[in-house]
Amino acid sequence: RKEVEQDPGPFNVPEGATVAFNCTYSNSASQSFFWYRQDCRKEPKLLMSVYSSGNEDGRFTAQLNRASQYISLLIRDSKLSDSATYLCVVNLYNFNKFYFGSGTKLNVKP
Amino acid sequence: NAGVTQTPKFQVLKTGQSMTLQCAQDMNHEYMSWYRQDPGMGLRLIHYSVGAGITDQGEVPNGYNVSRSTTEDFPLRLLSAAPSQTSVYFCASSFPGTDTYEQYFGPGTRLTVT
Q1: Buried b (16+ CB within 10 A) or exposed e, A86-100
Q2: Rounded CA gap, A43 and A37, in Å?
Q3: Does the pLDDT value for residue A3 go beyond 60?
Q4: Which of the four, A57, B34, B68, B111, has the lowest number of CB atoms within 10 Å?
Q5: End-to-end CA distance of chain A
Q6: In the structure, what pLDDT confidence band is assigned to residue A51 with cuts at 50, 70 and 90?
Q7: Burial profile B17-51: b = 16 or more Cβ within 10 angstroms, e = fewer
Q8: Dihedral sign, Cα of residue A6, residue A100, residue A94, residue A1
Q9: What is the DSSP pairing of strand B10-13 with strand B109-113?
Q10: How many helices (H) and strands (E) does chain A have?
């Protein structure tokens, strides 16, 4: 069983739409949670950390549900530049191992 | 700061050849790691290091060796290349204990084994 599971998509949405991704993790000992963004043929870059109380960064909102073991990412007012693959990442209690989901591809169309 | 650098960017090997992928960072990060990324598989951890002289295995360590003689460098050695090692390899570094544990990635090495 994979540590982290994501819907691969693609999610095809028009500009200005709101889109949400979910990600589930299997290990209840997971302590830290992140969303990374990866553009085509580029390295992943941190989009945002996910805190227990939920957090927002501009048009992006991340939430954590420990009881159901999933995290979510909501993107409001989608821009063409949001087109990318979004990777869900969890880290176990000793923070030495990060587990990546296979990513959800987002295409924002004009 | 150059951040995390990786060389080479591209490499083609024949089955059985060995080579070393180089990774260096200039941010004085203690934690460094190597991942491979295959289509539909996401990034999988190969080996990681929490400081000079300390390394450990990740999810998929077979066929790879690492060493960490300095804080800056973390080379990955392929002992005898196999077609199954065709992949994109990313090196990453971070400074544990920070609020975000943000990992900084190098630009990747695209390896093809024929």
Answers
A1: bbbbbbbeeebbbbb
A2: 9
A3: yes
A4: A57
A5: 38
A6: confident
A7: eeeebebbbeeebebbbbbbbeeeebbbbbbbbbe
A8: positive
A9: parallel
A10: 0, 11
Return the residue in B56, B98, B101 with the most chain A beta carbons within 10 A, the one to mutate for interface testing.
B101
Contacts of B35 in chain A (CB under 8 A): 100
| Chain A contact set for B58 (CB, 8 A) | 97
First to last CA, chain B: 36
Distance from the Cα of A79 to chain B's closest Cα (Å) equals: 24
Token output for B88: 């994109």
Q: Tokens representing A45? A: 């870059």
> Which residue ranges in chain B fall short of pLDDT 50?
none
CA separation, residue B104 to residues A45, A99, B31 (Å): 7, 15, 10
Tokens for B47, please give them: 């080996």
Q: Which residues contact B3 (CB under 8 A, 6 or more apart)?
A: B25, B26, B27, B104, B106
Is residue A97 within 8 angstroms of chain B, CB to CB? yes
How many angstroms separate the CA atoms of B95 and B57, rounded? Answer: 19
From the list A74, A83, A86, A103, the residue with the least C-alpha distance to A4 is A103
What is the 3-state composition of chain A as percent helix, strand, coil, each rounded to the nearest 5? 5, 55, 45
